[in-house]
Amino acid sequence: MGREKLDAIVAELMGAEKALVRLQLFSGTHAIASALFGSLRPGQNMLCVSGHPYDTLEEVIGQRPGSQTGSTVGSLLDWGIGYKELDLLHGLDAKKINGDIVAFDFKAIDEALHNDPTIKLVHIQRSCGYSWRASIPIKEIKRLCNHINNEYKNKGRNIIIFVDNCYGELVEDEEPCHVGADLVAGSLIKNLGGTLAPSGGYIAGKGHLVDAATVHLSAPGVDGGATFNLYRHLFQGLFMAPCIVGESLKGAELVSEVMNNQLGYPCNPPPGSHRTDIIQAVQLGDRKRLISFCESVQKKSPVGAHIRPIPGFSPGYGDEVIFADGTFIDGSTLELSADGPLREPFVVFTQGCTHWTHWALVLEETLSRPAFQQHANK
Questions:
Q1: Burial class of residue 286 (count of CB atoms within 10 Å of its CB; 0-12, 13-18, 19+)
Q2: What is the DSSP string of 108-151?
């Protein structure tokens, strides 16, 4: 009963017909993969319209050999499902028309859809991921949904609009399904878990699409799944989530203010900007500074403060990457974390905090380190 009630609450929160909230979805990538495999069939294509997706989705799509298999076995490509990709129109330097950022390249999207009738799903990654671009506000997602609905769905072509909603939940007044998206997915050790969910993910949207994702996660004819007596953590985490997301946004704004306005590092988003997710990216421009920043986060974490994070290769990532996440729930980026790929221009991506002052402690530690000594007088 608790499992079904939580599904119903998340569906209402997401503006969706139905939701699947499960501990068995062990990451955001797993939830996204289940949604994609449930929605797509061999011979169909997906079109990503927000540029290159987050690194861990490359193996799901079949863009890169799997880190475990050494091949594309089990990927969408292996199942005969194709992939196409379009860049955002202007990224961080987007033009403004009537005060609105133009993020999507509608001309290129229309050209792709007209030329390829096998495109079944349009994929939108709301957050910037590991790309140096603006995250996509709900109003821009709404604009694209309205366009696809008016120009294609209402004329008989049933295109699925899917949104990777990771890091964006509860930041704005509406979620993607409120403005026309058919399906969204995300992780419970990010925003919706409120730092209390021990694992899990969610998929929400049109009922038949959620059902299809459920079948892919489990098996035809199999419903439900073990609850492990942990649903109290999921309910309580969801209850706490708006407060924790609010603190995360204040922490992100502090990082942006100090690193950009006071120290001159390019930040995405810049201080005072509209925010649609909890990620704050800082372009450090130097390998040593990126490593040192992550070491500071780990040192000021409540768990594993004695550990020194080092760069390495992790499953799902094509580049060497460094993670700092001394969290009570392993991997819970909403608690306090920073990570980034060890590649130019050496950008650190910060996420989450249970209270914004935690980032003040991290920044004090960071600026006392040799890699940042040029800022000592500031």
A1: middle
A2: HHHHHHHH-TTEEEEEEE-S-TTSSSPPPPHHHHHHHHHHHHHH
pLDDT reported for residue 231: 87
Q: Which segments of the chain belong to CATH 3.40.640.10?
A: 2-233
- Give percent of the chain above pLDDT 70: 96
| Cα 73 from Cα 180, distance rounded (Å) | 33
Range(s) within the chain of domains with CATH label 3.90.1150.60: 240-375
Q: What global pTM score does this model have? A: 0.93
**CATH code assigned to 240-375:** 3.90.1150.60
82 beta partners: 45
Contact 329, 197 (CB under 8 A): yes
Hey, what are 274's tokens?
């509209």
Residue 5, Cβ neighbours under 10 Å: how many?
Answer: 12
Q: What dotted CATH number matches 2-233?
A: 3.40.640.10
3-class SS at 107? helix
Q: Which residues of 216-253 are buried (b: 16+ CB within 10 A; e: fewer)?
A: bbbeeeeeeeeeeebbebbbebbebbeebbebbbebbb
What would the mean pLDDT of 6-12 be, rounded to a whole number?
A: 97
What pLDDT was estimated at residue 335? 96
163, 184 Cβ separation under 8 angstroms: yes
Cite the DSSP H helix spans in 119-266: 138-151, 207-217, 231-256
Q: CB-side exposure of 7: number of CA atoms within 13 Å?
A: 21
Query: What type of residue sits at position 171?
Result: V
Q: What is the pLDDT of residues 97-141, one digit of tens each?
A: 445 555 899 999 999 999 999 999 999 999 999 999 889 999 999
Residues facing 229 on adjacent strands: none
Distance CA 61, CA 72 (A): 9
80: left (phi over 0), alpha (psi -120 to 50) or beta: left
